[in-house]
Specification:
The protein is an alpha+beta fold. The chain has helices at residues 17-26, 28-45, 71-85, 110-118; strands spanning 8-16, 52-57, 60-68, 89-91, 94-96, 100-107, 122-123.
Length: 129
């Protein structure tokens, strides 16, 4: 088993409150690029190449980190996800914050986490390099 990943898979579901507020104030159009910017920031600053990102709804996001070595690293990842999602964004002249909230769960293996997530999450494709 040398070289095989160890640890537990970690599923993090986040609610990004700003998406609904933008939809209500500015209509649906402007919220989509904001959500895309948030997801792009997560991919660039937090998620690893093998991590999964998907949407559960208009303002819900799910991430699966297939291997997390212990609860301390899971907490660090959760803090980094929330900090990255709450970085200020500009929409026209307004500075906005995502105001995310998050919950997480660990799984014994990647397949369990992915099965749970894929029941509802729509994968967000990675941008082509």
């Amino acid at each position: 088993m040398s070289g095989a990943p160890t640890g537990r898979a970690w599923l993090c579901c986040s609610w990004i409150a700003v998406i609904s507020r933008i939809d209500a104030l500015w209509a649906i159009g402007p919220a989509t690029p904001v959500r895309e910017r948030i997801i792009a920031s997560l991919r660039a600053e937090v998620l690893r190449p093998d991590d999964f990102a998907g949407t559960l709804g208009r303002d819900d996001l799910a991430c699966v980190l297939p291997v997390v070595e212990g609860p301390q690293l899971a907490m660090l990842a959760a803090e980094k996800l929330l900090r990255t999602m709450n970085a200020p964004l500009w929409l026209d002249e307004a500075e906005i914050y995502a105001s995310p909230s998050s919950g997480s769960r660990s799984f014994r293996g990647r397949n369990s986490a992915m099965r749970c997530c894929r029941k509802r999450a729509v994968p967000v494709p990675r941008p082509q390099d």
